[in-house]
Amino acid sequence: MFRCGVALLAAAMLLSGCMTQGAGSEYAAVVQKIGPPKPGQSRIVVLQEKRQGLSMSVCACEMKLDGQPMGKVIYGSYAYADRPAGRHQLVASELMFPGETTREFNTESGRTYYFLIRSSERHDAVTAGTMMVGLVGLAAASVVTSGSQNTGPADLFPLDEAAARTTLAELQLAQ
After folding, report:
1. Helix, strand, coil tally for the chain in percent (to 5)
2. Number of domain units in the chain
3. How confident is the model over 78-91, as a mean pLDDT?
4. C-beta neighbour count of 11 within 10 angstroms
5. For the segment 1-33, what is each residue's pLDDT rounded down to a tens digit?
6. Helix, strand or coil for residue 4?
7. By C-alpha distance, which of 101, 116, 58, 49 is closest to 77?
8. Could you tell me if residue 127 is inside a domain?
9. Residue range of the domain that includes 143
């Protein structure tokens, strides 16, 4: 019995070492490596905070900027892209989710714009329906929430640079 406990403890230590060893790129290091946006360009950063406790209010959003993929932003990660200054459109979608979140905004040359992703009320309702009743719950919750103001999986909130950098310090670059 004692040997079994020791073996389990050793396995847990090995697994926890594997999980931390591959920690992603810290945003400050990425910015230092790539530098500021080039003249005439702006940078758009989309991030999702780490999961809080056992909360299921997270989404695995495929992000597109002006129709071009940025990456899949899950909890604890971020994605970024540099684009010419001007009008842009961010779109968040999620596999098997009936709808998209769209946000349009303008950028200025040389500036970085940060957007925080949080799961939308509709996303949370559809997820709860699916967990409770399966595909029937998915269909029912999708119909019931189809009139929501935001029909997509996420809400996109603009962040100021100070708040964004504090949050980004703990996140990994999306794949």
Report:
1. 35, 35, 35
2. 1
3. 96
4. 10
5. 434 333 333 333 333 333 333 334 577 788 888
6. helix
7. 49
8. yes
9. 24-173
